[in-house]
Amino acid sequence: MARPWEAFFEQYDAEGRLYKQAQTSSPMRDHRRAFRAQFNGSLKGKRLLDGGCGYGSDLPFYAKRGAKVYGIDPSKTMIELAKQSYPDFPNLSVQPVQKTTFPDRYFDVVTSIYALHNAPNLRQAFRELHRILKPKGVLLFLVQHPLFVFLLNKNKRYHGKAMVRFTIPDMRPPCTIAQPAHTFSDYFNEFVLERFELQAFEEGHEAVPLWFLAKLRKRETHRCR
Prior knowledge:
Blueprint: H1 4-8, H2 10-24, H3 30-36, E1 47-51, H4 59-64, E2 68-73, H5 76-85, E3 92-94, E4 107-113, H6 122-132, E5 133-144, H7 146-152, E6 163-167, E7 176-180, H8 184-187, H9 190-195, E8 196-203, E9 211-218
Helix pairs in contact: 2-5
């Protein structure tokens, strides 16, 4: 029997090539500029994981800054596309962010663009990312803005757990995907607040923000309530 995350990511196995075509034919969007602006120094000697790397478009950006780059994605199609496009990156594998095979305290940096919001259980995902990050390691993620997702949610219950389908507004050809609806309290739950410190936060500047990013640093010891 397929695990829940496997069934969910079948959409990317089926539509992965269309998704890549749409993204690569679109200009760099504001969210990616904002995300990359968080890297204002060298990553030389750092071990970096791109969690939900898709077809690998960000891997060269990290490598040029000196990082030893790893990439994971739950979609077999996406990892196949990444390996075809970037054969010089050997450390690519099919894995979900909520359960990886990496050792404890393995990475200096974990990044994730438009991927973490796909995790059905965010607490489980953050627990796993915390496990594989070194103390003082950085987690930088960018996700769909909960307000944008709420307005798409037909039942109009902010705290209601639902699967929302929508068409990505500025991709050509348009891509329609489904994802779980999450709230801000899902992202900034007590596990995250106790074990990470917030270093940066930014929202999209659209009339209804499409995205937000957060830069977190893992605490050496977590706070007890």
